[in-house]
Amino acid sequence: MKILLLAIFSLLSLQQTYASTPKSVTCTRTEYREEYIPGTKSNPGYVRGYEVDVEIPCGGTQTQNTDVNDCKEGSVIGGLLGAGLPISSSRGKDRWWAIPAGGTAGALIGCQVDGG
Q1: Which range is most confident: 28-32, 55-59, 69-73?
Q2: How far apart are CA 15 and CA 72, in angstroms?
Q3: Residue 88 has pLDDT above 70, yes or no
Q4: Structural domain for 65, as ranges
Q5: How far apart are the first and last CA of the chain?
Q6: In whole angstroms, what is the distance from residue 99 CA to residue 93 CA?
Q7: Which pLDDT does position 17 carry in this prediction?
Q8: Does residue 3 sit within a domain?
Q9: Residue 42 pairs with which residues in a beta bridge?
């Protein structure tokens, strides 16, 4: 039992957390604008046209919905626990089918518990 617990805790310590660097993307659009410059009788008014770059929200990457659920750790730990239970409780010929069945069931349950 101590070896099983040692194996579980060693697998948990191998889990690494990867931090992603936030990407700063600025999207712009050029807009044409006009401004009326008033005048006088001797100097008539006029319209001045110019272009301005305006920041807009970027399309493509922000609208994608990606599934980031990962159940690797839960499957491994659940498989070990699921196979460990039949090892301790079965004897003789029953071990040869009980261990793989328990490992498979434990891996499936561990994946669901881990968020997969």
Answers
A1: 28-32
A2: 10
A3: yes
A4: 26-114
A5: 28
A6: 11
A7: 46
A8: no
A9: none
